[in-house]
Amino acid sequence: MRAAPIAALALVLTGCAMTTARLGSNAAVATAPEAQAMAADSLAELVKLYPPAISRLAIDASASDDVFGHALTDGLRKRGYAVVEGSRKAKADPSAVPLRYVVDQPMTGYYRVMLRVGEQSLTRGYTTEGGVAPSAGWALNLSGASEQLVERATRPDLPGDAEQVQAEVAAVNAGLVGPAVVAVVDTPEPVYQPSAPASRVTIVVPPAKLGRPAASPAGWRVQFAAFRTDRTARSYWRSLVQKKPALAALKPRFPRSSRGVVFVQAGPYRTVAFAKRVCGGLNANACIVVKA
Asked: For residues 73 and 54, what is the distance between their CA atoms, to the nearest angstrom?
């Protein structure tokens, strides 16, 4: 019975919270396990809306020095995002979209996470009864959002291995692998396709159980090189595409290791055999197969 008023409270307070609360300052209200769980849930929504391969995000390190901020930043890097950490005194990076957040506790037993990516905002409430869990779906304010962003926000969830299948199809289309080695699956069409960029769209995404999602195959990736910085890694990828245009069809990944090394990878693919065929099709001496 409490879910409805709690969800309503989250939506009513969404508009003012991002301006009245100091960004990131209230994240300490949650315990470490709760903050990490909410950060993982936030990351899943960010990945859906802002593809890692084409998104460069700027996070204010001085306002994100808490468990939620660290977990979110680390998760973004592991998913292949280019994350720029700066401070309020440092000059902003014009190529990076600002990412800010607020985690607060407007009432006992209830948390609220508010993310702001550029001009768009995402808000979700969580209860703490029996462990932290969503009390409602994500409320997305897509004011001025592009047609592509609105489409991604309303796109149905795909099967667990859809990402791997799509990567394999891209490799086949690029002529790197024979078509007989990949099975193509049909995916549902988007439920919302605007004819022009939205001036103001608010979408409430249905809630889902928080925790570990249904297991999906991690798959395998092809790896080309490793560098000290993300910028150098991305520059190397661009040079590879110029030398081997077929690479443009692949989805690049730039994960960072715990030691700060940035890898240049593509994929993932469902099997190690398929990944090896991609390397073979590229005829690249430096291409190796690694676990995704």
From this structure: 17
The residue written with tokens 């990412």 in the block is: 99
| Buried/exposed code over 175-201 (b: 16+ C-beta within 10 A; e: otherwise) | ebbeeeebeeeeeeeeeeeeeeebeeb
Count CB neighbours of 206 within 10 A.
8
How far is the C-alpha of 257 from the C-alpha of 26, rounded, in Å? 29
Tokens at 188, concatenated:
């549902």
How far is Cα 74 from Cα 290, in angstroms, rounded to an integer? 20
The pair of three-digit structure tokens given for residue 286, joined into one six-digit string: 């430096």
Name the helix (H) or strand (E) containing 150. Answer: helix 147-153
Does the pLDDT of residue 254 top 70, yes or no? yes
Residues 27-45: pLDDT tens digits?
567 888 888 889 888 988 8
173-186 pLDDT, tens digit each? 777 777 655 554 44
Look-up of token digits 């549902």 = 188
